[in-house]
Amino acid sequence: MSTPLVSICIPTHRPEYLGRAVRSCLAQTCQDFEIFITDNNPSGESGRIVAKLNDPRIHYQNNNENIGGFRNYVKVVDQARGHGKYIYILADDDLIKPRFFETMITAFEKNPSVGIVMAPMDLIDENDQRIFPRFYLVHKMQYRYRYQVGDGLIGRKRVLWDFLTGAAGDYPCCVPTGMLYRAEAFWPALPFDI
């Protein structure tokens, strides 16, 4: 069995969202992936949802209790160790667009020294309509992420400066669900022992 290109990690505890999150992965134009799911909900509902999807690339494990968000995150990431060339962590209530992996892997291939590729995000409501909530009573989310539009390599010094100074009130990056990691950069950079 060959190693998949992408290892997708989904820590979950909300079966009401999990099915849509996994289906957004299964709808990718790049199909060279595996999915690891660790479940903090002992009800078994998430397991039934995964079984109905009937995809051998999905590796599901129920924790039989709620071990807490952080430990669940660590556990699912640890299952991906030594697997994919790229590591992706998807929150159970998030969705990804069909060309997500295709686009991001292309960016990695064009920039072999890059360890993380980021993508912008859209906030949506329960009807999949884009929303623009207010934060801090002033900013709308669409303006919160400085690198929301366009593509290109962002230099280390600029990203560091933007993170440290919060220049122009913007957060320079995106949420973790918007990041794909090169495995060889991801594993040595982990701040915790898994």
Characteristics:
194 residues, alpha/beta, Spore Coat Polysaccharide Biosynthesis Protein SpsA, Chain A, 6-stranded mixed sheet, 8 strands
The neighbouring-strand order within the major sheet is 3-2-1-4-8-5
Bulk shape? globular
CATH architecture of the largest domain: Alpha-Beta Complex
Helical proportion, percent range: 25-40%
Give the C-alpha Rg: 17 Å
The structural domain count equals 2
Count all strands and give the number: 8
CATH superfamily of the largest domain: Spore Coat Polysaccharide Biosynthesis Protein SpsA, Chain A
What is the CATH topology descriptor of the largest domain?
A: Spore Coat Polysaccharide Biosynthesis Protein SpsA, Chain A
SSE pattern:
EHEHEHEHEEEHEH
The CATH first-level class of the largest domain comes to: Alpha Beta
Main beta sheet strand tally, sense and closure: 6 strands, mixed
Uncertain segments: 140-144
Structure classification: alpha/beta
Distance between the termini: 25 Å
Mean pLDDT: 81
Strand proportion, as a percent range, falls in: 15-25%
Question: What is the number of helical segments per DSSP (H or I, 4+ residues)?
Answer: 6
Task: Describe the protein's architecture and organization.
- With about 190 residues, the chain is α/β, with parallel strands linked by helices.
- The chain has 2 domains: about 1-120 and about 175-194, Alpha-Beta Complex (Spore Coat Polysaccharide Biosynthesis Protein SpsA, Chain A), CATH 3.90.550.10; about 120-175, no CATH class.
- Helices cover about 30% and strands about 20% of the residues.
- It has 6 helices and 8 strands.
- The strands form 2 sheets. The protein has a 6-stranded mixed beta sheet, with helices on both faces. Strands 6-7 form a two-stranded antiparallel sheet.
- It is globular.
- The protein starts with 5 loop residues before the first strand and ends in a 5-residue tail after the last helix.
